[in-house]
Amino acid sequence: MKINADKNKIGNHYKVIILNGSPKAHGNTAMALHEVECTLQQQGIDTEWIHVGHLQVHGCIACNKCWDTGDCTFGDIVNEISKKIQEHLVETHYIR
Asked: Is the distance from CB of 16 to CB of 40 less than 8 angstroms?
């Protein structure tokens, strides 16, 4: 598989965040994601794993706190992931 990731380029390299939403950190989902990771790494793309399947993640209640403060009102893993994605978008000049 050849990945066309020009839009995800950071400086001279690429980075992909791999989210594992399965409650089994080393189950079938992780095995499938590992195969994707191997393909990405073979092409020089950095990866970062975040396992969220064992965490409680609240559903959105449309309170708009995230628009006002930049953080979810529930203060769960969504805030951490959101910050990582925002950093990536700034580094790739998608947002300024």
From this structure: yes
Which pTM value belongs to this model?
A: 0.68
Residue pair 88/15 in contact (Cβ under 8 Å)? The answer is yes
For residue 1, what pLDDT is reported? Answer: 43
Q: How far is CA 26 from CA 15, 21, 32, 53, in A?
A: 22, 11, 10, 11
24-to-18, 76, 78 alpha-carbon distances in Å: 15, 19, 19
By CB atoms closer than 10 A (0-12, 13-18, 19+), residue 20 is buried
Q: What is the pLDDT of residues 1-16, one digit of tens each?
A: 444 555 555 455 678 8
